[in-house]
Amino acid sequence: MRNALELCFPGECFSLESSSDCFHFLLDVSPRVIVLDAESTDLKEGSFIKLLKEDDRVSDLPIVVTGQKKSWQDYESKIEVSKYFSKPFSLSDLKSYLVKFTND
After folding, report:
1. More confident residue, 68 or 58
2. β-strand partners of 63
3. Average pLDDT over the chain, rounded to whole?
4. Which of the chain's termini has less CB crowding within 10 Å, N or C?
5. Are 9 and 98 in contact (CB under 8 A)?
6. Does pTM top 0.85 for this prediction?
7. What is the CATH topology of the domain spanning 2-98?
8. Any alpha helices (H) in the chain, and if so which ranges?
9. What does the pLDDT average to over 73-99?
10. Residue 37 CA: distances (Å) to CA of 13, 56, 59
11. Among positive and negative, which fits the CA dihedral 53, 57, 62, 66?
């Protein structure tokens, strides 16, 4: 998915391996939207999204999550996100949703 997003939004995507790296990076680059994969180890419990929602510096950022429906059902009632795309999904649908955050 990272490669597809980089093709759709050249020069505007960043991919990081861990949530601790990601959180510090977010504070440095001020993104307009965050796209996360629910299958990520750091997202399994929803702790990273909770961290984002609890920090005033990034709490207003739209968060888009992609993943298998069954993995998201485990914790979706505990976490508020802007949009969830259940796999498999259309890349054009995701791009259409994200473009509203990337255009000034």
Report:
1. 58
2. 34
3. 77
4. C
5. yes
6. no
7. Rossmann fold (3.40.50)
8. 2-8, 19-29, 47-54, 69-73, 91-102
9. 78
10. 14, 23, 18
11. negative
At residue 41, φ and ψ (nearest 5 deg) are -55, -40
Name the nearest CA neighbour of 12 among 40, 27, 31. 31
| DSSP letter (8 states) at residue 77 | G
Name the one residue in this structure whose structure tokens are 């702790």. Answer: 47
Residue 43 is given by DSSP the state G
Give the tokens for residue 34.
């965050």
Tokens of 104: 């000034």
Q: Are 98 and 33 in contact (CB under 8 A)?
A: yes
Structure tokens at 70: 């069954």
- Residue 3 pLDDT > 80: no
* Helix%, strand%, coil% for the chain, nearest 5: 45, 10, 40
The Cα–Cα gap between 34 and 12 comes to 11
Strand order in the sheet with 63-67: 34-37, 63-67, 83-86
Which amino acid is residue 75, in one-letter code?
Y
The pLDDT-based confidence of 72 (bands split at 50, 70, 90) is low
